[in-house]
Amino acid sequence: MKKSIKGIIFDYGCVISTKFDEKEAEEICLILGLEKDSFYKIYYAIRPEYDKGALNTQEYWRKIAGEYNIFLSEEEIERLKELDIKGWTVIDEKMLSFIKETRKNISKMAILSNMPSDILEYLEKSFEWLNLFDTLVFSCNPGINKPDREIYMICLERLGLAPEECVFIDDTERNIQAAEKLGLNTILYKSFDEFKLEFIQISPLLYI
Question: For domain 7-18+91-202, which architecture applies?
Fold first, then answer.
């Protein structure tokens, strides 16, 4: 017999937040003297090490700059950090409203996200709605990124739920595939409207 849905696990970036803000990306490219394509290529290539805490802020931005033989001052690195945080902290108000409404009818909620400590610290200081979640699992602590199996298990253990009792929402295919292998119900996030329709199909009683 199929178990009822008791928990929802959300990715953060591009699900709860919007995509990286282009205004911030443009200023970052000006500081680095790079075209956007070149910037994004190295930004995302090195990002997993930053997300799990293997690189600190200075090391991350110096490694990006080093790929193109760019020198960065301390002030420039601090500004890059600020822009990076700002670019990832624009919240999708439709999704936030969904979370608040659905929280009334669901036993457990979590965020499971690849995120560096700089952004996490900003979120914790800035957004009271994080208190809606029973647990927050970010890659910088315990130092494991999705799609590693272990970070999903940490989240499930903290929630006290079986995989089949949860819905996992993420915008990245490989993270969805890893969750499915563990037995979680999944939704590959593309847009809020598509997501809501899929969610209602999985668990119609949770969103009324």
Answer: 3-Layer(aba) Sandwich (3.40)
- How many H-runs (helices) and E-runs (strands) does the chain carry? 9, 5
Structure confidence by residue, pLDDT tens digits, 5-41: 999 999 999 999 999 999 999 999 999 999 999 999 9
Give pTM, 2 decimals. Answer: 0.95
Closest by CA position to 159, among listed 2, 41, 8: 8
Q: List the domain boundaries for the chain.
A: 7-18+91-202, 22-87
Classify the C-alpha dihedral 186-189-192-198 as positive or negative: negative
Alpha-carbon gap, residue 207 to 98, rounded angstroms:
8
Buried b (16+ CB within 10 A) or exposed e, 36-65: eeebeebbeebbeebbbbebebeebbbebb
